[in-house]
Amino acid sequence: MEIWRWVFIGIIFLADFIVKIEPFKLGRSQPTERISGSAGDVLEDDPVGRLKVFVYELPSKYNKKILQKDPRCLNHMFAAEIYMHRFLLSSPVRTLNPEEADWFYTPVYTTCDLTPNGLPLPFKSPRMMRSAIQLISSNWPYWNRTEGADHFFLVPHDFGACFHYQEEKAIERGILPMLQRATLVQTFGQRNHVCLKEGSITIPPYAPPQKMQTHLIPEKTPRSIFVYFRGLFYDVGNDPEGGYYARGARAAVWENFKDNPLFDISTEHPTTYYEDMQRAVFCLCPLGWAPWSPRLVEAVIFGCIPVIIADDIVLPFADAIPWEEIGVYVDEKDVPNLDTILTSIPPEVILRKQRLLANPSMKQAMLFPQPAQSGDAFHQVLNGLARKLPHDKSVYLKPGERVLNWTAGPVGDLKPW
Amino acid sequence: MKLLALQQSYLNRRSNSFRSSGPLDSYSDSAIKSPAAIFWIVLHGLSCLISLVLGFRFSRLVFLLLSTSSTNFYTSPFHSSSELSKTLDLHSVLPTNPVGNIPVPALNNTATNSRVVVGRHGIRIRPWPHPNPVEVMKAHNIIERVQMEQRSQFGVKDPRKIIVVTPTYVRTFQALHLTGVMHSLMLVPYDLVWIVVEAAGISNETASLIAKSGLKTIHVGFNQRMPNSWEERHKLESEMRLRALRIVREKKLDGIVMFADDSNMHSMELFDEIQNVKWFGAVSVGILANSADTNEMADQKKGEEENPPMPVQGPACNVSNMLAGWHTFNTSPFAGKSAVYIDDRAIVLPRMLEWSGFVLNSRLLWKDGDKPDWIKDIDTLDGNIENPLGLIKDPSVVEPLGSCGRQVLLWWLRVEARADSKFPPRWIIDPPLEITVPSKRTLWPDTPPELPANEKPVIGIQEPTVKHTRRTRTSRSKRPSKRKHDEARADRHTEIVSVNARNEMSFDGTAASTIGKSDCSAGLREGENSPAESKIQYTGSRGGAEKNSSEWERSLDRIGFPSKDKLSKRC
């Protein structure tokens, strides 16, 4: 029996050794770290089998006709609502039997009414949403059962379901009263803000995956830019003197660091924007008129550490991704000391952040590829929805009970669409 | 009317210009009739006037003072500097509409603990918004560390030491060439040993040059002087390189041996690529065959339009990326026209295959150890070998590097001065010059006589002069000199004395090209056109000037050569 003991120990040793070298056998020979957020190591969970989603069949005037009128909606940063619909139609989590569904999805494209310049007008969106909800509440009994508590909607506009591009106006309107009980999947996220309600899921803005793939440069190109940013500092059309745009933070960045050789910042639109990001160590992601921006997605894809300058912002999938370990948060009041803050980060911390960013599941989670791949943003949304299950018994209302006020809100919203 | 205009401009500023301003219907026309509106109009006009006088929008200061009680007003004192600097534009003098400036406090009561407020914020600028050198250094260290990490992850795995072999000798162009190689080697991110073999023994010149590099160097002397003809020179260099290889064997240096001739230029990718060699590799070398005489090059180009010589030497591969043969430099167009001696005016040709295009694993040179059987022992070589292929018995084992020879990773160029051209030792001018001479005139009074620049016009003037023809003819046929060193040569100018004006023009034209600036040559030509002055100009004292040079200078002046001040004005 002595020999068997030694054999057993030997096998344990060998297994230990093999397991140790396993993480380093990645295809690209770059050691990466596993990412686990506050919800645990959930980025690679598979939502199939954990939830069932029923997709309402709305008349095409809510979705297809709008898209036909303006196909630019497929490429702008609010395109997530359209791609989510398409993904759900062909996903294994979809169920055709609403009785067994955990979540209900209403495909209404509220951010597809575009100006000639391509920016969405939100003025008709509340009416559109209201009309859609009236439709589903009258044709199916599931809305009235819970007053929307097991329904989810995608509202990727600037301030989510507040449906306005100006922050003051958005705050004034607040979230559409009819969506008070539903789960909102939106890009906007700011703590203690009217337009972010408890239990919402923040998603990244849509960035075209193929376009970014075509601009990849070899990984051994040394990163020689310290801080990189391209974009507006002053919104000359609307706020020429600064102070309103970005709460003065972008203007502060410019005024303090315009002649600093470490900061490669300007308002130009170079064709090598993506390539330059891959040659930079830090990429600034300051707020604009809204706190979120596609720059975060681009920084993550290109391995550049995002420097987030937006007070109280809630970043995408905040419970699955530990953003404090990946990016650098800088308060807006600390912007004049940005260079001190960034240079005082120890190199080991910087290398760890780069390792986390290099994790392929991190990059996948920020993208909306077509066709969908495992671990991408669609799956993260479903994972987030699955984590909210099972529904609390209290969301099911007694028949006849009403919680929502259907006539609340500005008078203009009550007009039929 | 004014209020409407005010409202319009305000609306345009506050809302996006391309978005509808429909919802902003709070400013109705009824406001005109109320006394409050009139009060605001008057106040506005007054503010405009005051701002005009003062030169900045003081209205903000007023509001800052007035609304200090409002906790939501987020402006802070240090933004005023930015405001002042930006608001000197008098056209934008109209103060912000007071109704809109102060953010409505009522909106924020729904946000319970938010520390973020909506509205105008100050632009924070620190008192000295300029880079701090300590932080810049820290940032550079961070970048270095990141790049080191990148290199270790994506670059070459287990980089081997590089052993660089350079034969050199003391001459005018040595500083130029050796500094170039030295800088390239200092940038190499791998361990390096530099073996410098010097002809005619170790000298202080070379030692002081390579000591500046900070690299690990082995400096050996070789007991022969570098001969003057290219053939001999190549032979001696091969022997010197073999000497270096013997050192590698004695010291059992472990790494990759590459041959960096001092006149070559290396790219950084070369050093990354040679790390891939297993035993014996070859890279493509770009050949920049230099001819000092542009006329010759032009002729050659015209004649060779169908078949220009491919300026690359190196391995040639077939479609399956296996070594199939060699590209060598096509020397047939230059047959008979190539330079024989160093600093010949003619084109300098490379060998069939240059040493610098080969790299080998240093273990091939060791006496013992496991090495393949196709390598010959250095000690058993009976004579000199022309290139490293002479070390191996079977040329098919050579590994082609640089994506099978498609990448040219280094360039070959031979530019040298005359064998007897002088330069200040260690390029330090000591003792300092007492003589101030114009730039066209040499600093070195004891240099040998200058030789003619153009053959044809000079032939034409042979008949008038009898005195010095023999000397110039012989010296011309043997040693046509490089243009760089044909500044004052005495007998050249005695020849020119009898040259007619057109030849003077050509001399000046070609000589002016040594300076290389078109306006200089224009100036010279202009100066030259003036009638020959007979005044004799002596600039400064001629402490050490010998008879030759003073004669020469006098002759220059006689032909109306531009004087020093004319030159300095134009160039």
Automatic annotation (TrEMBL), chain A:
The keyword Translocase does not apply. Its main location: Golgi. Residues 50-345 form the Exostosin GT47 domain. It comes from the Eukaryota. It is found in: Golgi apparatus membrane. Keywords: Glycosyltransferase, Golgi apparatus, Signal-anchor, Transferase, Transmembrane. Pfam families: Exostosin_GT47. The keyword Lipid biosynthesis does not apply. It is a single-pass type II membrane protein. Belongs to the glycosyltransferase 47 family. This is Exostosin GT47 domain-containing protein. It comes from Hibiscus sabdariffa (roselle).
TrEMBL record, chain B:
It is an enzyme of class 2 (transferase). It comes from Hibiscus sabdariffa (roselle). Involved in the synthesis of glucuronoxylan hemicellulose in secondary cell walls. Residues 440-495, 512-557 are annotated as: Disordered. Residues 484-495, 544-557 have a biased composition (Basic and acidic residues). It is a single-pass type II membrane protein. It is found in: Golgi apparatus membrane. Belongs to the glycosyltransferase 43 family. Its EC number is 2.4.-.-. The chain crosses the membrane at residues 37-56. Residues 467-483 have a biased composition (Basic residues). Keywords: Cell wall biogenesis/degradation, Glycoprotein, Golgi apparatus, Membrane, Signal-anchor, Transferase, Transmembrane, Transmembrane helix. It comes from the Eukaryota. Coiled coil: none annotated. This is Glycosyltransferases.
